[in-house]
Write a structure and sequence with these properties.
The longest helix has 14 residues. The protein is an alpha/beta fold and about 260 residues long. Helix 9 links the parallel strand 11 and strand 12. The strands form three sheets. Strands 3-4-5-8-9-10-11-12 form an eight-stranded parallel beta barrel, surrounded by five helices. The protein starts with 7 loop residues before the first strand and ends in a 5-residue tail after the last helix. Helix 4 packs across helix 6. It contains ten helices and twelve strands.
Length: about 260
Amino acid sequence: MISKRNYRTLGESDILVSPIGLGSVKFGRNTGVKYPEAFAIPDDDDLKALLDLARELGINYIDTAPAYADSETKLGKLLAHSRDYWCLSTKVGEYYQSGRSHYDFSAAATQTSIEASLKNLRTDVLDLVFVHSDGDDERVITQTDVLESLQNLKDKGLIKLIGYSGKSETECLLAMNYVDIFMITLNEQDQSQVPLIQACQQYNKGVVIKKALASGYSTDTNAALNFAVNFPGVTSVIVGTINPDHLKENVTGLVAE
C-alpha cells in the first residue's frame, strides 16, 4: 500500500498525489489504441471494484480525457460521493468520435471541452487539464489558442493547474512558461525526453509519466515502474490497467526511494 508520506507535490501547487496514478483509457475505449492485446470495456460494477481497490492501495490520482470515449462520464458517476479524495486530470485538444480521434485546439473547442468535462466528472473545478497534443507541438503551442484559453479558464477558477502532453522534447520546451505540469514519455526503452524532465526540475514544473510500461509491451513490469517512479524529477506515473491483480502487483512491487 502507498503511504501518504510517499505522496508528492504537483509542481508548485499544494496538491499531493500518489507516485502511481490510474489511467482510464481502457474504461471507455478499445479501438484505435496501441495495446498488444484486445480487451473488453469493463462494466460499472467492475470499474467500481477497481476504483475501490485503487483507493485501498493508496492511489489518489486518476487521469482521463475526452479522447477516452465515455470514461469521464463513468468516473463522474462512480466518484460522485468521494470527489474530495481524488485528484482528477483530464485533457483538451483530442476528441473521440465515430471510433477515431480528431483534434481541435481552438478557443471555442477548449471552452466547450472544459464545460463538458466539468459536467461529466460532476465537479466544480478540474484539478489538472493537459493539452492532448497531436504531435505537432510547436504549432499547438505557438499558433493555436489552447494555452491562452486554458489560462483564462484557470483565472476563472474552473481549472487549478494547466498541463501539456506532447511528443517532441525540444518543441515542448516552448510551453515551459505557460504550464504547470508536463506529461512525458519515459520507460527503459525510450528516454528521449529525459532533457525535458531535467528542464522541469530546473523550472519547478511537475512531471507526470506516460507509457512507463511501453503501452503494455514491457516484459518486467516491476522494474519498469520502479525505474519511472524513482527517476529524478518525476511526480507520478500513470498506469492504465483494468485488471485488479495487475494493479495490486504494480503497487506491491513498488520500491519508493
